[in-house]
Amino acid sequence: MKHFFAHVICFSAATIILVAQAPTAVNDEAAIREVVRKYVDARESIDAKAIEALFTPDADQLVSTGEWRKGLKDVVKGTVASSQNSRGTRTITVESVRFLSPDVALADGRYEISGASAADTRKMWTALVLTRSPSGWRIAAIRNMLPAATAR
Predict the structure, then answer these.
(1) Does this model's pTM top 0.85?
(2) Beta strand 68-70 with 55-62: parallel, antiparallel or unpaired?
């Protein structure tokens, strides 16, 4: 019986240590979804400083037009210019978050830019790679895609 209690105590202590050290996927997923929300908000308000704060220094972005923005400076400049040139309401609805490692995640979602009418709405997909930094999750890469027309 004495050995049983010793095992229970050791197992309980080990479990507490592991739980305390392991990042919680639920909290990380919520934080990632919040970064995506802040990204959309920063684009909508055309706030270069807010956009910059969400990305890693080596970030890149491949947009649906084929333009490939490489590096933080180009990502911010291109994002601001795009938001200024193509007005409309942007939304990203995150459909899934998958952890590739404890410090790298892939967020996939529906990306829409809606205009004055339904005909003006661009429906795309986006994939964001995020990495954990000392200051939280940051966007390392974005890939925007226009779905191809369905073959008949």
Answers:
(1) no
(2) antiparallel
- Tokens, residue 94: 């995150």
C-alpha to C-alpha distance for 8 and 122, rounded to whole angstroms: 58
- Residue 55 parent element (H or E): strand 55-62
Distance CA 123, CA 140 (A): 23
Q: Degrees (nearest 5) of the Cα angle 56, 58, 59?
A: 65
> CA-to-CA distance for 131 and 58, rounded, in angstroms?
11
Q: What is the pLDDT along the chain (152 residues), one digit of tens a residue?
A: 565 555 545 444 444 444 444 557 789 999 999 999 999 999 999 999 999 999 999 999 999 889 999 999 999 999 999 998 877 899 999 999 999 999 999 999 999 998 755 567 889 999 999 999 999 999 999 999 988 777 66
CA distances from 119 to 88, 90, 107, 122, 123 (A): 12, 15, 27, 8, 11
Tell which residue, 78, 81, 31, 73, has the closest CA to residue 52: 73
